[in-house]
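Suppose you are handed a protein chain with no further information: no name, no annotation, nothing but its sequence. What can you learn? This example shows the usual starting point.
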Amino acid sequence: MEQPSSKSTSLLSLPPEIQTQILSHLVSSFGKPSIHAVLRTCKQLYEIALPLSVHVFRNAAPFSDGGGPCSRARNVQFLRYIVISKPELAIHVKTLLLGRVSSENDTPMHIKDIAQPQDVKCTKKELSVYQQAIEDVLDRLNYDGDRKWSAEWVEDLSKGCSDAQVALIMLLCPNIQTLMFEQATKPRQFIRLLQMVGSLNSQKPPPGKLNINQPSIPLSKVEDVFHEATEFEEGYQMFHEQGPVIFHLPRLRFYEGNLLYGDMVAAEKFDRLQPGCSPVEEIALRISTIAGPTLKSILKACKALKKFEYTHNSFIKDYNQLTPREILEALLLHSETLEDVRVNMHEEMDKGWEWQDHPECLYMGTRLSQLRSLKTLTVSCQCLTGILAGPPENHGFNGRPMPLQIEGAPSLIECLPESLESLKILGCGEEIWETATELLRTVEQGVRFTKLTYICFLFNKWLMKSKIDLHCYSPHVRLEIGYQKQGFYQFDLGPPISETETRREHNATSRIYAPDARKYYLGIREAAVFPKSAYEPRPDPYDFEE
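A reasonable first move is to predict its three-dimensional structure. Written in structure tokens, the prediction is:
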């Protein structure tokens, strides 16, 4: 009997929706996107792939530089493409990944601008089109700001300012969802655009006027923001200008900043936001210097925070840096919604806190138990218990040595919330044995902390005289004891790293300049069982090609 032949299905025979889903996997934020090759296959796939080809606009310095200016020529090329040649594509731009922008000529220049200096400025005809586009958007938004703005914007475009170019891309691409950028140098139009967005998002529209949540407001669909500085000893000095506006974006869900510097000026500006106005759910302040009032102002602006991460930056000496108690006071604003908290205070370094009159500021305390929804807690030892593994560097440089153990500090079982499922304590020393043992015996009894299934104590190996005896006989709990080398301890803070001899030092957590190192870092940080080295240099598989 003759078997019926199975009908083969080719990509060309699939419905356009399925073709789009398949080809979307060829879109990449790093490297030369494979989707561009599809454009040269056939007319049918060209029409499917064309919108996908602009989903990501990456314009940053080469990875080997670890930071630097974006290419002005590349900005000009992209603007010409999505505004003049194929304006229907502007709505398909979803991700902007940008290097440093400036209102001045960058030095050193991007390698592309050095090779093509004639291409860094727009033509007079293009400038006329862009000015009309700017004025059309401002009129549609009923924006009552400076009406000379469009002329000043176009003047900066005529000079080839990357600041003006990038701001125009943000203005004319209404469906941007992910925004990643390096700290700008003397931004002008970029800042004014953010200020306009903030102003529009803070207004209550009169009847019949524009609804502030409509996507016609620039950046109104942004859900994910990452920005960073690249100089560890200076930090992100413009956080006070950009942070409050970013937090007011109506669809923001994920926020991450590297090397942020949040002083009292930032606190004042965040305080101007309406409490609970920000929809952000996850915040990561990595390697940052934040004042206590600033953190509280930031979290006060959030409606319902679910995840929070803070890593202390010891490269900047600032006496206004927040204490563990101030961190807790800010977190308690979201006691009903916070599920995941990660705090690493770099306790190997003395902060110079004025703790003498208030030693309780050196640990979070019993009110931590009021975080009723908390499931995962990863925290450095003194921050939770008041116990240091050993004398920190610069111990007592402010005239009073920091105590290795705070008298009267509460035990672990007094501080931890009953909702906790996972607990990891970093930078432990031998003195934690008593309170750790009390916790483990309590868990074994099965009356308290019934949801806790994972406990890890990470000890500073270089300070330990011998291994410590800790065990838990509860069948429902996995206990891990790790003895961390000093190199891994430093690596957990997200420090500057070098992958090769020819590559500039960069941040291990950078989403712009270190995607491979970041993936490795997030996979092994604070591990109880360690690989051979904190970071193994390797060729980056995402090396970007123009």
